[in-house]
Design goal:
The protein is an alpha+beta fold and about 160 residues long. It is about 20% helix and about 25% strand. It is built from three helices and seven strands, in the order αααβββββββ. A hairpin with a 3-residue loop joins β4 and β5.
Length: about 160
């Protein structure tokens, strides 16, 4: 009888695992691993989902990811598909649709740690859209550190 009870318990847990969605850490092992090894005080951008394909990282802001100055340059513009926040100040990172911190924004907080994917799911109300409604994936052109009270839209 014990073997039957044990077998039923294992089977129940296996079935439950198939039904219950994965947590952020389970869904994004690359991001969790990268966050654990990230340099304190930096934000990171990646061109693939799950924090793969490092574009760049910086503790500073950059008003134009497409120009030839600042931590992000040239082809970095409009390329990010996942992001990581390992700041130490308590500030959020605001990402902007256009250079010069304009065109809509979306923020990532220290508590959120990372956005494992920015891929647009065609839901106009999804958190993968800037405050102006534009999709975020492959459309970030500037970023800066801001107080969370200055953010009107957050990633989850």
């Amino acid at each position: 009888m014990r073997k039957l009870s044990s077998a039923l318990a294992v089977l129940s847990l296996t079935a439950l695992g198939a039904i219950v969605p994965a947590t952020t850490a389970q869904a994004a092992p690359g991001c969790e691993d990268n966050h654990d090894s990230a340099t304190s005080g930096n934000m990171y951008a990646y061109w693939n989902q799950f924090c793969e394909g490092h574009i760049g990282n910086t503790p500073n802001e950059d008003s134009d990811w497409g120009n030839s100055s600042g931590p992000f340059q040239g082809s970095d513009d409009n390329r990010a598909t996942s992001l990581l926040h390992n700041g130490t100040s308590g500030l959020a990172v605001a990402f902007y649709r256009l250079p010069g911190y304009s065109g809509g924004h979306i923020c990532l907080t220290k508590d959120e740690k990372y956005a494992s994917t920015l891929v647009d799911d065609n839901d106009p109300y999804a958190n993968d859209r800037f405050s102006n409604g534009d999709p975020v994936d492959n459309r970030i052109s500037s970023h800066r550190w801001v107080d969370q009270d200055d953010c009107g839209k957050f990633m989850h």
